[in-house]
Structure to design on (313 residues):
């Protein structure tokens, strides 16, 4: 099989085929496994936002497999080297080529990159209901380290229709001079940092991201929240905070961005106060995800909400 495959990074000429691949791989997987609806409820070309944002952030950091016989894209994945770690995603293999070891080759390529460049870990967030991806990663050496409730809130055009929460007044829009503190906070809470991602969300060149911070009495940052609002994905995160109250205030404020639509987010199951607050805001459970780590993992010392765009943390 290896001899019949070409492995190379994606480039601009692959954008349309890659967007089709993502749309097709995810929608067919979820239909086949009883989801009864599309995962990407948008046109295939709209899914190209993943390539666009990831290529803006770290150009060329993707790996795709092509069938030598017909040139078709069989599978593709991005990887995101940051200060201390590499994160992996979004991964997809075309349904015509599933179960033939393509996913494994892409993961191996990214783990080789991680090892050769002396990164401490590779991190990703994967579905706990998807045995294809769960086994792909655990067989390659990843260990599930945290479990998340994926929840959706449908936000009315008037907003959340719930009282404001303590600390909401401390939340403000993030600015470029917050970036260093955002990095220190994520380092303290999660053992990683990714300043280019924070800067990108603050500068927001494609008009789909937003970033806010939670300030304490000393005007230091106790939390930050990034969110994406796009036809392919409405999602809160990454969010990092010192405690659940700060995270709840950040969520409450960021949800206002999604008036008249829905928003997805993932909350660690052990963050019980947050989980109860989300139910009080009429959140529904839609899936379960796992934080998977290959290599060193110092544990979480605070709140960490992952995201798929920009990828995890
Ligand atoms: C998940 C996905 C990428 C897997 O790709 P794939 O090319 O079919 O995976 P592979 O053929 O490389 O299989 C991976 C490994 O899992 C093994 N495997 C598959 N199902 C398994 C199961 N139920 N139990 C144990 N092992 C299993 C395979 O044997 C293989 O192991 P090996 O390399 O040690 O032999 C693909 O199904 C996909 O694109 N799904 C839709 C999108 C998606 O879910 N993306 C991931 C989001 S988290």
């Amino acid at each position: 099989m290896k001899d019949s495959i070409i492995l190379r990074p994606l480039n601009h000429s692959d954008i349309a085929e890659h967007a089709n691949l993502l749309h097709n791989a995810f929608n067919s997987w979820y239909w086949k496994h009883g989801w009864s609806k599309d995962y990407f409820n948008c046109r295939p070309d709209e899914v190209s936002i993943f390539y666009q944002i990831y290529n803006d952030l770290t150009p060329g950091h993707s790996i795709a497999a092509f069938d030598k016989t017909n040139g078709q894209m069989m599978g593709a994945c991005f990887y995101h080297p940051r200060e201390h770690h590499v994160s992996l995603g979004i991964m997809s293999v075309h349904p015509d080529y599933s179960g033939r070891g393509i996913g494994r080759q892409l993961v191996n390529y990214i783990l080789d990159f991680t090892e050769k460049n002396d990164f401490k870990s590779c991190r990703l967030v994967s579905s706990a209901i998807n045995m294809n991806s769960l086994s792909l990663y655990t067989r390659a050496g990843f260990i599930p380290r945290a479990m998340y409730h994926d929840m959706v809130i449908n936000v009315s055009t008037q907003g959340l229709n719930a009282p404001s929460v303590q600390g909401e007044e401390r939340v403000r829009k993030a600015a470029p001079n917050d970036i260093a503190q955002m990095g220190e906070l994520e380092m303290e809470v999660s053992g990683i940092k990714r300043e280019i991602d924070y800067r990108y969300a603050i500068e927001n060149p494609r008009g789909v991201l937003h970033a806010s911070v939670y300030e304490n009495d000393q005007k230091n940052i106790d939390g930050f929240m990034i969110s994406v609002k796009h036809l392919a994905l409405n999602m809160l995160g990454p969010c990092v905070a010192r405690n659940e109250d700060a995270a709840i205030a950040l969520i409450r404020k960021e949800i206002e961005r999604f008036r008249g639509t829905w928003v997805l987010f993932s909350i660690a199951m052990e963050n019980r106060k947050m989980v109860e607050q989300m139910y009080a805001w009429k959140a529904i459970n839609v899936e379960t995800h796992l934080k998977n780590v290959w290599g060193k993992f110092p544990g979480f010392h605070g709140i960490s909400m992952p995201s798929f765009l920009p990828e995890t943390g």
